[in-house]
Design brief:
The complex is a heterotrimer of chains A (262), B (266) and C (258). With 262 residues, chain A is an alpha/beta fold. Chain A contains nine helices and ten strands. Chain A is globular, with a radius of gyration of 18 Å. The two termini of chain A are 29 Å apart. Classes of the chains: A alpha/beta (262), B mainly alpha (266), C mainly alpha (258).
Chain lengths: 262, 266, 258
């Protein structure tokens, strides 16, 4: 399997005047093409810092992030990000369609292809009928669907998701998780999904990277050997799911206590 | 995000230094341009000359009389406008019938430029302080009235119903429910009105000849006392900055506990 | 039915007030308070075609010119200052000072430089007075841009031009509009004041001329005309705002409902 995203020796220290705060001590991992990997860690584990470094929004202090073999120094073309704050990442003055289309215009995608991509993406997230609405006319879950549609229409090779469902209600959340699995399988896109929710990480991922608390290192890279066909009812009640969940839960408890890998 | 915050706090000291630097550069330019002959010094005297004149002014009784007259006119007008705006605003805002009835009239009268009244007050009161007072009151009254109306309209319907269900008297409702909600809006109105009042006070002095700093600026300019013109403009500017800072500080104090504003100001 | 009620409410008080003015002033012999009937009857003969083209329209043209200059300069500088924190820190205290100087005192200062006869000095006066609220509100609006939104624009690699047009200007537009509204009322004030210095023509100059020559009913027509113009300008402004900021109203309503 070819490597899509490679993180080597990543380190991030914030320096302010004389004091410095080490957010990420040392991170090494790589994600293969077409993989769906979840990152989970206790709150304050520097998940957002990590994601911002990977997406090129934040310069790392040391180490490299490579996307498809090229070092990331600024937001790369082959990456799309879905933020937690859907209400603040969608442009309220644009309609749903315009929101999805704008990045494509910037990418100089020809008009006909653009229309096609936008229509497909909106249909894929079940929002074909809301194309001419404004984001604020939609519910929170639907707004996050728009953000996902925008990301997949962009045709990225890696899709980063930063706790995307932390702000939606439980029912909507389950639907959106299934949507992510479905899109991932259908489009073959590589997904890096950051969450603080253990169940969500285990349910979605092929692998779960468990982070320590600050300064962050990887505590364990857990392979999720659940069957590929997953659904909210059977997968979540499977004994193996419970075991994996318990395992990750223990790791998080250790992380909270400040335990670090040997 | 945790990472960006400490940066911001440390940046504040640097910001202050930059701000002072900015002021110094402006003063430096005002010194250098006329000295180097780039700008005619009968239009723009060197900053040092302005400040020297300003210091001289501080020793003059006439200056203090002017300053007192300006501040008195401003404060009196503002106080009258505040009282009238708050009382009328609470009454109109709390009674649905009055609100509907007056809405169009308020919308019509509010944008009428207060300077339209200048000829009228000149006819009626000449250059007496009353002229300035009327202009100041008229201009600042609308600012406060409109803000108070917003404030009263912002009262949470649930809270209002609660007050009603406990059979609060009208006065108690106003005191315990309406007023606390409206207070931040009142302070916003105060801030806007305070600066508008200063503008109109100075305008009346400058145009109508009501005694005060504005009149002296006009006289200084037309008699060719350029340094004095600038010195007095600087004084008026400092008054303006002070008024803004005080009003904003007051506003922030009342805003701090107010949830709806806090959310908006986010 | 509801529509009829709204109309009735909107018209009731103005009609009553005008009627009161009309009848209360009907027999007035006071020089200062001529009967409203008299004011209305001299309106047509006072504001002739010649006065419109020679006084009123030039006044409005100067207002428009000064306002446009202030808008362009204020938004441009405001974006630059708002986007770069060191620039903002450097300029802010100075700008606060200039904002706090009541705009009418600019007249004597501008008079020093340009004299006070031509259109240029008047337009400069209006532009300088309108500039500060637009500039400072733009700075505020640009500074308040949502970080997540800016991150989004970076992630999708928007060009600088798109970021400016689609994100910065659109995002700051509610604040810019607030500044523009303040600037408009200051502009009207300065339009009048700038005509009061020296011998002039213009709407404000005419009204003062009437007052000085004790043509009191004519002076009243001028006050009314100025009031109506002020009102119409604010209506016009609100129409423009209504359409260009429809999204913002919707967003606010959605936020409140939630």
């Amino acid at each position: 399997m070819a490597t899509a995203l490679d993180v080597r020796g990543l380190k991030k220290t914030y320096t302010t005047g004389g004091t410095s705060l080490e957010a990420i001590e040392q991170l090494d991992f790589s994600i293969g093409q077409g993989e769906l990997v979840c990152i989970v860690g206790p709150s304050g584990a520097g998940k957002t810092t990590l994601l911002r470094c990977i997406s090129g929004l934040l310069d790392a202090t040391d180490g490299v992030v490579e996307l498809d073999g090229a070092a990331v120094t600024e937001p790369p073309a082959g990456m799309a990000v879905v933020f937690q704050e859907y209400g603040r990442s969608l442009f309220p003055w644009l309609t749903v369609r315009q929101n999805v289309e704008l990045p494509l215009k910037e990418k100089k995608v020809p008009r006909a292809r653009r229309t096609e991509l936008v229509d497909e993406a909106l249909a894929a997230v079940g929002l074909a009928d809301s194309a001419s609405s404004h984001p604020w006319q939609l519910s929170g879950g639907m707004q996050q669907r728009v953000a996902i549609a925008r990301a997949i229409a962009y045709e990225p090779s890696v899709l980063l998701m930063d706790e995307p469902f932390a702000a939606v209600d439980a029912q909507t959340r389950a639907d959106l998780e299934d949507l992510v699995r479905e899109l991932w399988k259908r489009l073959g896109v590589t997904v890096l999904f950051v969450t603080h929710d253990i169940d969500e990480a285990v349910y979605l991922g092929q692998r779960v990277l468990v982070l320590s608390n600050r300064p962050t290192v990887i505590l364990e890279d857990v392979a999720i050997d659940l069957p590929d066909e997953r659904d909210q009812l059977t997968t979540r009640s499977a004994p193996r799911f419970a075991e994996l969940r318990a395992h990750v839960y223990e790791l998080i408890q250790k992380a909270k206590k400040g335990e670090r890998p040997a | 995000m945790a990472g960006t915050r400490p940066k911001r706090v440390a940046g504040r000291g640097r910001d202050a230094v930059l701000g002072v630097l900015g002021l110094l550069v402006v003063v430096g330019l005002a010194e250098a341009l006329p000295r180097l002959g780039i700008v005619n010094d009968s239009y723009l005297p060197p900053a040092s000359a302005m400040f020297a004149e300003l210091v001289d002014q501080l020793g003059e009784a006439a200056f203090w009389t002017d300053l007192g007259a300006t501040l008195r006119g401003w404060a009196t007008g503002l106080a009258i406008a505040m009282a009238a705006g708050i009382v009328l605003g609470v009454v109109i805002g709390s009674v649905g019938f009055l609100r509907d009835l007056t809405a169009s009239t308020i919308e019509f009268l509010r944008p009428i430029p207060s300077v339209a009244l200048i000829p009228l007050v000149v006819l009626l009161y000449g250059s007496r302080p009353t002229s300035a007072l009327i202009l100041v009151v008229y201009a600042s009254f609308w600012q406060i009235l409109v803000q108070v109306l917003y404030g009263v309209a912002d009262v949470d319907p649930v809270v209002r119903d609660t007050a009603r269900s406990y059979r609060f008297s009208r006065l108690t409702t106003v005191r315990t429910v309406v007023w606390p909600t409206a207070l931040p809006y009142v302070m916003t109105g105060f801030r806007l009105a305070a600066s508008v009042a200063l503008i109109l006070e100075i305008t009346a002095e400058l145009i109508v000849g009501v005694p005060g700093l504005g009149k002296s600026i006009g006289v200084a300019q037309s008699s060719g006392a350029v340094e004095k013109t600038y010195a007095l403009v600087i004084v008026v500017g400092i008054i303006g900055v002070t008024v803004n800072l005080v009003a904003r500080a007051l506003e922030r104090r009342t805003l701090r506990w107010h949830v709806s504003i806090r959310k908006e100001a986010r | 039915m509801r529509f009829a009620r709204t109309i009735a409410y909107a018209l009731a008080l103005p009609i009553v007030l005008v009627a009161v003015w009309w009848f209360a002033s009907a027999g007035s012999t006071s020089v200062f308070w001529p009967p409203l009937s008299k004011i209305v009857s001299v309106f047509g003969e006072t504001w002739t075609a010649d006065r419109w083209t020679g006084d009123v329209l030039p006044s409005l043209a100067r207002l428009a010119a000064g306002y446009a200059v202030a808008m362009a300069t204020g938004v441009l500088l405001g974006v630059v200052i708002g986007l770069y924190r060191p620039v903002r820190a450097f300029c802010e205290p100075t700008l606060e000072f200039f904002r706090a100087v009541p705009p009418p005192v600019l007249v004597p200062v501008i008079a020093l430089f340009l004299g006070y006869t031509g259109d240029a000095s008047k337009i400069v006066t209006i532009a300088l007075g309108c500039l500060w609220p637009i500039l400072l509100n733009t700075v505020e609006g640009v500074r308040g841009l949502d970080e997540v939104m800016l991150d989004t624009a970076r992630c999708y690699r928007f060009s600088a031009w798109t970021r400016l047009r689609q994100v910065v200007l659109r995002g700051a537009s509610p604040q810019i509009a607030a500044g523009a509204r303040q600037a408009l009322s200051i502009g009207v004030i300065l339009m009048v004041i700038s005509e009061l210095f020296g011998a002039n023509r213009g709407l404000g100059a005419s009204i003062v001329q009437f007052q000085r020559s004790f043509a009191v009913p004519q002076m009243w027509t001028g006050i009314i005309l100025l009031g109506v113009l002020g009102f119409l300008l604010s209506v016009l402004f609100r129409l423009v705002e209504h359409y260009s900021l429809a999204w913002y109203r919707g967003l606010r309503q959605a936020d409140r409902g939630a």
